[in-house]
């Protein structure tokens, strides 16, 4: 095996999904929505296949999709970008992230991740022989403190990842916090890499704020977004990176080498989704807010303390008073006892704090979610 694989394990997300399938449980572990993909998105993709749009596209993606993304980021993200040179359509946000790391960072460079973090960020960092550097944000608010961020910077720190709304905590970074990142990134000349895959899933009338739209961040930020969670098409693997032209050019070079291009007919489907009825995005928030409230009420009743998420479709539940020896043991015991799978908090933490949490994904149809909540009461 190559050195870069040293210490890399299949994710707990993968492991719990397999255990859940083995036991025939309800999978609130892996984050995937079982809402139906919008009909317009599906039908346009099918039509594209029938029309013969089945061959390579430009590595940066088809023009109609990039034009639709440029309109979308102008409206939703307050970002003015040129569709021709500043957008790269990628194989999921995962693909955008991998291409970004390969384009800008050298082995041994430090990259800051804010804990709790999405495990794929950490593992992709390790895969690229970069040095992960952790800053713990303290529960339950996960506020970013300027002095802490400054203290976390090392001589080799080249970049910082900002996942908002966050997987797994649901934290949304405020304008004030993004201004802190702006100041520190300027002071230490950091690249800022965002993960905004949950941008349309926000609660209690909160508005998603794109880091690149704040202060002077745009010139040093790669904004990574995608369609998986918005249109419930996690298996299509379609995302995109938005960045100033010189950065986008480098990302596109890597994207071409890794994947040639994103799946052609599916690009047509998502383009249609972006230009479709805006009401869709509105009802998405309401639908997920209802689900959030069902799961949080149910967790609380079962004696697991939910940390109310501001966005995304996960909730961290505090299990520290249930007496398990580790989060992994807790996740397996809960699955065995109730038939409900979750992900151990340790998958999202470098520090021991992760042992106190389980992450539940609530992107499930209401009936499934209610059954899961009923079963969780077996823990009382
Ligand atoms: N992003 C999703 C999660 O956090 C799924 C990722 C995956 O299956 N690897 O659960």
TrEMBL record:
CDD domains: AAT_like (cd00609). It holds the Pfam family Aminotran_1_2. GO terms for molecular function: kynurenine-oxoglutarate transaminase activity; pyridoxal phosphate binding. SUPFAM superfamilies: PLP-dependent transferases. Gene3D superfamilies: Aspartate Aminotransferase, domain 1, Type I PLP-dependent aspartate aminotransferase-like (Major domain). Transmembrane segments: none annotated. Its cofactor is pyridoxal 5'-phosphate. One of its GO terms (cellular component) is cytoplasm. The keyword Transferase applies. It is an enzyme of class 2 (transferase). Keywords: Aminotransferase, Pyridoxal phosphate, Transferase. Residues 26-376 form the Aminotransferase class I/classII large domain. The keyword Transferase applies. Its EC number is 2.6.1.-. Belongs to the class-I pyridoxal-phosphate-dependent aminotransferase family. PANTHER family: FI04487P (PTHR43807:SF20). This is Aminotransferase. It comes from Methylomonas paludis.
């Amino acid at each position: 095996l190559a050195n870069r694989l040293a210490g890399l394990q299949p994710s707990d997300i993968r492991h719990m999904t397999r255990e859940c399938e083995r036991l025939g449980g309800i999978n609130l572990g892996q984050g995937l929505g079982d809402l139906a993909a919008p009909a317009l998105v599906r039908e346009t993709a099918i039509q594209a296949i029938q029309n013969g749009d089945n061959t390579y596209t430009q590595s940066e993606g088809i023009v109609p999709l990039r034009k639709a993304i440029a309109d979308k980021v102008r409206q939703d993200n307050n970002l003015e970008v040129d569709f021709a040179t500043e957008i790269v359509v990628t194989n999921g946000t995962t693909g955008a992230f991998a291409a970004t790391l390969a384009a800008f960072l050298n082995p041994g460079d430090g990259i800051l991740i804010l804990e709790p973090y999405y495990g794929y960020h950490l593992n992709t960092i390790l895969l690229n022989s970069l040095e992960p550097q952790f800053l713990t944000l303290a529960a339950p608010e996960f506020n970013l403190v300027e002095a802490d961020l400054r203290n976390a910077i090392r001589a080799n720190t080249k970049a910082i990842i900002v996942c908002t709304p966050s997987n797994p905590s649901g934290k949304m970074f405020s304008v004030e916090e993004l201004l802190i990142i702006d100041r520190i990134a300027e002071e230490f000349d950091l690249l800022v890499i965002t993960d905004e895959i949950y941008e349309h899933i926000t609660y209690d009338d909160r508005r998603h704020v794109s880091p690149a739209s704040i202060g002077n961040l745009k010139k040093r930020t790669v904004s990574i977004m995608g369609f998986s969670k918005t249109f419930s098409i996690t298996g299509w693997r379609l995302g995109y990176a938005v960045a100033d032209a010189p950065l986008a050019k480098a990302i596109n070079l890597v994207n071409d080498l890794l994947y040639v291009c994103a799946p052609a007919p599916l690009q047509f489907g998502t383009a249609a989704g972006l230009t479709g009825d805006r009401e869709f995005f509105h009802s998405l928030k309401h639908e997920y807010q209802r689900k959030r409230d069902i799961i949080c009420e149910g967790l609380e009743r079962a004696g697991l303390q939910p940390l109310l998420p501001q966005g995304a479709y996960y909730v961290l539940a505090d299990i520290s008073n249930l007496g398990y020896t580790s989060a992994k043991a807790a996740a397996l015991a809960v699955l065995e006892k109730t038939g409900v799978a979750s992900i151990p908090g340790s998958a999202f933490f470098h520090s021991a704090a992760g042992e106190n949490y389980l992450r539940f994904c609530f992107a499930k149809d209401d009936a499934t979610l209610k059954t899961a909540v009923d079963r969780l009461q077996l823990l009382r």
